[in-house]
UniProtKB/TrEMBL annotation:
Domain FAD/NAD(P)-binding: 5-325
Chemical reaction(s) catalysed: N(6)-[(R)-dihydrolipoyl]-L-lysyl-[protein] + NAD(+) = N(6)-[(R)-lipoyl]-L-lysyl-[protein] + NADH + H(+)
Species classification: Bacteria, Pseudomonadati, Pseudomonadota, Alphaproteobacteria, Acetobacterales
Cofactor: FAD
Other facts noted in the record for this chain: The active site is a redox-active disulfide bond.
Disulfide bonding pattern of the chain: C43-C48
InterPro entries: Class-I_Pyr_Nuc-Dis_Oxidored, FAD/NAD-bd_sf, FAD/NAD-binding_dom, FAD/NAD-linked_Rdtase_dimer_sf, Lipoamide_DH, Pyr_nuc-diS_OxRdtase, Pyr_nucl-diS_OxRdtase_dimer, Pyr_OxRdtase_I_AS
Name under which the protein is recorded: Dihydrolipoyl dehydrogenase
Keyword Flavoprotein attached: yes
Record has Nucleotide-binding as a keyword: yes
Limits of the Pyridine nucleotide-disulphide oxidoreductase dimerisation domain: 344-453
Cofactor note: Binds 1 FAD per subunit.
Active site: H442
Length: 463
């Protein structure tokens, strides 16, 4: 008799491993299939965690070299030990992936090691062994989107995975794509000494984010030394021992030019990953972009097969995948699992950071929503001045009639931490006045959020 489970989750990224743990907490017998040697998926192994480790290390290096002196801290002979920095990143990743293994043991989730294939509804094959299950959860995530004419070798032409592993600081790094991953990793290598050029097809960076914030963000990154080539497309990459030569054309068409680089980071987005899963044979439908089609409750068209995370529609973010994992486990247990897609924060972990939640001004305009805007700059915040981090501002958008908060966009120090209070406010349906009348400790960066909320009604105090 094959071993049988209540739930088999395929993929142990933040969507899959969280779903497995929550289902086990709710009393189900759970297995999670993972083909990687360690648990945690893209996020813990080659995504969020290693990138944040390098962002932190490179920011420390940058501060020591360029910011300490203004505080009267004079440090001489600062040197980069890249091998040590990379080893530390490895230790951070190691601690996190081991943590998930511990949580699986604690919650009695069985890790089925190897690639999982759906051989029929209720049957999953791993390493030649078939397991039976009442429910199958597809949580196989995503991988980087390729670009025609640009061959990745993960040495000279790298995806984010290779960009996290470079053993030498490149002289010139060209980043193809001005999205979150490209800007974060471009920032890492710029701080460590590379010249960085970002080539972006559109006329702006971080597409989808509030345009005013994006413009200001581009200016701040420009001041830091990152160069931008917007409205441009890369059509070919030629490699030789001396580096990579890119052919770049205006997006609207026109004369091509050549751009030379030591390392090229291809980061034009990510695409759902469903290779070898047997979805066609099982009859599971995909949408036009190759994502697993689901209804509002994560169910595919095949009864007993569900999907969550990067492999389905929606923001490709770890916390979105996690929340879907929890919601689905609760639905499978007969509870009312739910994800509020209107309140999913999104963060760029450069310095300053960019964070947003809810709708942008462009989205509000597009749907004809009347709104009010309140803004407050960090130059007027005492704590930001004390930190020497005054770039950026907080922008709150509220319903013109009801004052309900509809969105918040922040460029500034610790924007990612600050956005959490607005997410909670929005989750509770708060008005800008509710945020403005909440006592915020002084002196904190969060006073800028309060002041922006006051500004919605034209009554900011410190500007
Ligand atoms: C460089 C980088 C930085 C990022 N930074 C952030 C960030 O700061 N914050 C954030 O929210 N998001 C970030 N992301 C995005 C985040 O990593 C993803 O949104 C998240 O990992 C999606 O989780 P998931 O569970 O859907 O899939 P994944 O994490 O991709 O996990 C899927 C897992 O399934 C496994 N798998 C696939 N097919 C099979 C199979 N047939 N059998 C067995 N196993 C299989 C894969 O090996 C993988 O481990 C980043 C991504 C990258 C690349």
């Amino acid at each position: 008799m094959p071993e049988s489970f209540d739930v088999i989750v395929i993929g142990a990224g933040p969507g899959g491993y969280v779903c497995a743990i929550r289902a086990a907490q709710l009393g189900m017998k759970v297995a999670c299939v993972e083909k990687r040697a360690t648990l945690g998926g893209t996020c813990l192994n080659v995504g969020c965690i290693p990138s944040k480790a390098l962002l932190q290390s490179s920011e420390n290096f940058e501060e020591t070299r360029h910011k300490f002196a203004e505080h009267g801290i004079m440090v001489e002979g600062v040197k980069l030990d890249l091998a040590r920095m990379q080893a530390r990143k490895g230790e951070v990743v190691g601690a996190n992936v081991k943590g998930v293994e511990f949580l699986f043991k604690k919650n009695k989730v069985t890790w089925l090691k190897g690639a999982g294939k759906i051989v029929a509804p209720g049957k999953v094959e791993v390493e030649g062994q078939t397991y039976e299950t009442r429910n199958i959860v597809i949580a196989t995530g995503s991988d980087s989107t390729p670009l025609r004419g640009v061959e990745v070798d993960e040495k000279q032409v790298v995806t984010s995975t290779g960009a996290l592993e470079l053993e030498k600081v490149p002289g010139h790094m060209v980043v193809i794509g001005g999205g979150v991953i490209g800007l974060e990793l471009g920032s890492v290598w710029r701080r460590l000494g590379a010249e960085v050029t970002v080539i972006e097809y559109l006329d702006r960076i971080v597409p989808g984010m509030d345009a005013e914030i994006a413009r200001q963000f581009e200016r701040v990154l420009g001041k830091q030394g990152i160069k931008f080539k917007l409205k441009s497309k890369v059509t070919a990459a030629k490699q030789d021992a001396s580096g990579v030569t890119l052919t770049v054309e205006p997006a609207a068409g026109g004369a091509a030019e050549e751009v030379k680089a030591d390392v090229v980071l291809l980061s034009i987005g990510r695409r759902p990953y469903t290779e070898g899963l047997g979805l066609a044979e099982a009859g599971v439908e995909l949408d036009e972009r190759g994502r697993v089609k689901t209804d509002g409750h994560f169910a595919t068209n095949v009864p007993g097969i569900y999907a969550i995370g990067d492999v389905i529609a929606g923001a490709m973010l770890a916390h979105k995948a996690e929340d879907e994992g929890v919601a689905l486990a609760e639905i499978l247990a007969g509870q009312a699992g739910h994800v509020n897609y209107g309140v999913i924060p999104s963060i760029v972990y450069t310095w300053p950071e960019v964070a947003s939640v809810g709708e942008s001004e462009e989205e509000l305009k597009a749907r004809g929503q009347a709104y009010k805007v309140g803004k407050f700059p960090f130059t007027a915040n005492g704590r930001a001045r004390a930190m020497g981090d005054t770039d950026g501002f907080v922008k709150i958008l509220a319903d013109k009639e009801t004052d309900r908060v509809l969105g918040c966009h922040i460029l500034g120090p610790d924007a990612g931490g600050l956005i959490a209070e607005v997410a909670i406010a929005m989750e509770f349906g708060a008005s800008a006045e509710d945020v403005a009348r909440t006592c915020h400790a002084h002196p904190t960066l969060s006073e800028s959020v309060k002041e922006a909320a006051l500004a919605v009604d034209g009554r900011a105090l410190h500007i």
